[in-house]
Amino acid sequence: MNAPNASGQRLLRALDAVTAERAEDAVLSVRDLTVRFRLRGGRTVAAVTGADFDLAAGECLALVGESGCGKSVLASALLGLLPGNAETSGTALTDGIDLLAADEKTLARTVRGRRVGLVPQSPAAHLTPVRTVRSQLEETVRALTATGRRARRKAAEDAAERAAFPAGHLDRYPHELSGGLAQRAATALALIGGARLLLADEPTTGLDRDLVDRTADELRRHADDGRALLLITHDLAAAERIADRVAVMYAGRIVEIAPAHRFFGPTGPRHPYARGLLNALPEREFTPIPGMPPELSALPEGCAFAPRCPLATELCATRPAFTAGLACHHPERPRA
């Protein structure tokens, strides 16, 4: 890999200093988070490999990447919601609790909903089918807050309004809701506990553009109130709207973390895959990334993006280390 020039060296030192400061102040500090799924016949799926990042109070980190790259698995690992054939390693600290090592009792009683809230990717699976949305919201208010009995109805209605869920649908059952309404109901439930860390896994799925913007803005307000938001999304427009930083995931590995203003601005991302994601947008070059992502059960030893990368060389047969927010042998040089 080419050695960075003087301005590049200054940037790397500055990034290291910011990373150290952020780790000390982090609401969530993830180190070497790895998830493997055991399959029949002794095979394994490398769903997440060596994820490292910190998330501070008041910050939104957008985790982006193609479907199947491991984004939702990472979120599920943080809440202990992986299936029985999953093996995790590394650490994920919040409020002194290692989420990867915590037992189910700790996760259920002191983490989920209280310290860490979740807007799920599949809201229908998280809504109780035989209870109305109102009753589920009021039950969540009772379980997670000190709101008195008489005030719970108003608190539930306020939560629904924050998530743009229409008051006229509160007494409906989940099966009577559209996909977009179910998504908004799940968002309302996640906001109730005022969790210091919120994981939003594709929270704008099924919403039109106006509702996407409204939902994104409400999630941003959650962070602006001094909490932290991990936004997992395919919607780069939503990420650009509210994110402070962007983490790009490819084939189970985070390959770049960059400030959002640089990622979406004239400088752009430094990793070829991240640049390809942006260039595929209709409002940009509308040029798809050639080829397909590799199977997570058969990853190459070197850079997983090399078969699709126009800059790949023999050097890419060796996996690049993740250093100063980047894992690439051929990054674009930082501009002065």
TrEMBL record:
SUPFAM superfamilies: P-loop containing nucleoside triphosphate hydrolases (SSF52540). Residues 30-276 form the ABC transporter domain. SMART domains: AAA (SM00382). Its main location: membrane. It is a peripheral membrane protein. NCBIfam families: oligo_HPY (TIGR01727). This is ABC transporter ATP-binding protein. It comes from Streptomyces exfoliatus.
